Amino acid sequence: MKLCHAVFATVLAAGLAAPAFSQQNTLVIAMTATPKGFDPDIWVPGQIESTVNVYEGLTRFGLGGGDGKRSLDFTKLEPHFAEKWTVSPDGKTYVFKLRKGVKSPFGNELSAADVVWTYEKSAWQKRTGLFMKNVDRVQKVEAIAPDEVRFTLSEPNRIFLSSLTLHIPTLFDSTEAKKHATAEDPYATKWLAANTAGYGPYHLQSVQAGQQAVFVVNPNYVFDKPFYTRVIWREVPSAATRVALVRTGQVQYAEQIPLQQIKELKSDRTVKVESVAAPGAATVRMNPKFPPFDKQKVRQAVAYATDYKAIGEAVFLGLGTRARSMLSPPIPGAIDAYHYETDYAKAKQLLAEAGLPNGFDTTLEYSTNWWWEEPLALQMQASLAQAGIRVTPKRISPAEMNARRAINSWSIPFLTHLTSGFVPDPSYTMFLTAHCKGGSNVNANCDPKLDKLIDASVAERDDARWLEIVADAQKEQADYATFVETFLPGTHEVFSACIQGYLWRPHNRLMWKDLVCRK
Amino acid sequence: MLIARFLALRLAVAVPVVLGIVFLTFMLIRIGHQDPVAMLAGPLADASTYAMIRKELDLDRPLLQQFVTYVEHLAHGDLGRSWQGGAPVLREIVTHFPITLELVVLAVGLAAFVGIPVGIRAAMRPNGRFDQITRFGALTAFSIPTYWMGLMAILVFFYFLRWAPPPMGRVSLEVIAPPVVTGSVLVDSLISANWAAARSAAAQLVLPVACFALLAMAPIIKHTRAIAIEVFGSDYMRFARASGFSRRTLRRMALRNSLAPVLTFLGTELTSLLAAASLIEYIFSWGGLGQYGLNAILQGDFAVVQGYVLTLALFSVVVFLVVDLAVLVLEPRAQLRA
């Protein structure tokens, strides 16, 4: 009994002495894990979430918000760390004049040599940066003056300027990084994996694996100083704990909250939920390498046998937006190309025409990469059964999913997947996800007609013609029917009630510099 | 001399056991479907990148050759580097291990402190009211899933009552953490006379330790009760009772005679709880070895998983060795058997 009293007394004493942590300019965020690395070229958990706040590019999207809500206009490209640029008449040469006074926390000013070094580093590492360089068709990057850099492309490319908004290939402070280079590691990749050297608004102060990472503002940041000068990134792996922390004001932001709780939090006045119908659609993909999905009619039958209404209500709890194309609405040029509605009779008829009047058996593989995968797989099982398609949902680990759906493997016949891309450009997104050579093509989506349309859209410079090609490509993909487009689950970010300024960006990660707290 | 021989014998048995565990862990994790290369390469990589990473991770050679290289490195105290982030596994384990150890030792200590006397008292009158209440309580505590207990504790004591501090690590953001000496924030705060940090660390410990202790207490009560019933039924105890010894003396006699098997059981509890710490750490964002190992398993970080399992195995060996030595000291008959 005495022990009980002692325990409760300690709890009570500690609890009363632990009010919400409040330092006006410190942002505390509850994240699933501390970052495993900080080199934008190397994908590891937490890297993108942190480095988008450290590294910024030569261009940026301008502000839109004609509807009264602050948002970005993805058709408006503005100079960011570049001051201006010129394009050659053939669209293959871009010359950027760098902005004056762009400095890293180490006091070094951005130069053309930094830009060249960044691309050399990515080429040497042969990872994400090199992929982006190839997508951009960048052939050569040269410093033509200390503050002028020239990009030569192998062919005109519409997405080049958009992709320069990204954090990868990014702009490193090469003067600082070179101090940590060695003969075996000429691009200081080991140092850059554990430290940051960018020109963006924040830089890493300390990290304790499994506990927390602390970022502080770059005192030399060339644009407006962010409201939050310090960001404490706490590892809180349990979603329930993250919700409790944001509700009690102990943290100002909690990431990856399940939709069931989002619905509840929307009516909670102690928190603010910001929702955007982006970045992509929850899809079920069919791999045409595997029968019976090699038959177009079978794939179309699956699309007709999907109960979209039930998925919207049971899986996305009425908070999702129906997907109508392989391109999501924020992407310019997206049209309502996906015409399938639930029609079991039509599905059965198509199956019979494909030589499968009694349906077929298949396994739908899903993982836990996204919260909706399991409920969607179960709902698909129920609805496809109505057309005689017998589905066995099978849960596999995220690691197995990532390995088997990769372009070198393509060994999953039927799987759940989220369509999304970092650059809100239709040509880029279509190339990435639906082109036979696309890096995020997870289901051996190889339709020569579609590939031809996507290739044409990448090179087309006339806007009207380009939009026509983009529309044709979306219609072709809908007919090819390897994607069952269900819903856009949306992005739902949960903040303390005082937080304002949230702005959705195509990389779908939070940028701390946007946020302010106004009580 | 006897103890030295005993130790040598035990270690001789432990070496092949640990090697077997190393072999099994190494093979099983690779036989599974997880492919760390795909995870590291990301969705945008091409075949040449895959080949490059596979070579970097030494995954392009036959399994047995990979194992031999791993054991060679192990013999030099090199557990490799995390495949995600590149941190040396040994350094990370050394950092994370005391964090979990602090939690587990305090929980098992609390569970033993409460559980052993309760078990002995229950055994004094089997099926009596106290025994029945104890058995019901122990069964209930044992049946509650750990994660649910943790979540309920947070909901009640942190969210509703606001008594407990935020379940967000080992020390409040408001205080400056002490310099690391032992790895236990509580102990390090006391060493450095940082009373604010010590108070915060103690407060952060209350809920996870209480949840963990409840989980550990049930089998301790059950086991102690069973052993004590046997002890109370022995001739010497019947003689003591007939001689009119007080209940307190009888309890002390029972405790002393039950201590060796109970201690052995506590060793088992300590090792199994270290492995089971992942869930409690996950709920309370504790950041110890359990959370580190769980993340590695989910992310296919083979080098870390191997290091994690090896640490658990070595910890078990050390704990059982210490327990056996303690039993040798406590019970002379054990020396004869040894």
Rg of chain B over CA atoms, rounded to whole Å, is 24 Å
Helix content range of chain A: 25-40%
What would you call the shape of chain A?
A: globular
Tally the helices of chain B: 14
How many β-strand stretches of chain B? 0
In DSSP terms, counting alpha (H) and pi (I) runs of 4 or more, how many helices of chain A?
17
Q: What is the residue-averaged pLDDT of chain B?
A: 87
Main sheet: strands, sense, barrel of chain A: 7 strands, mixed
Number of strands of chain A: 21
Adjacency order of strands in the biggest sheet of chain A: 8-9-10-1-11-19-12
Global structural class of chain B:
mainly alpha
Q: Outline the biggest β-sheet of chain B.
A: none
| Helical content class of chain B | over 70%
Q: Helix/strand-derived class of chain A?
A: alpha+beta
Tell me the quaternary state.
Answer: heterodimer
On the 0 to 100 scale, the average pLDDT of chain A is 90
> Cα-atom Rg of chain A, whole angstroms?
24 Å
Low-confidence stretches of chain B: none
Shape estimate of chain B: globular
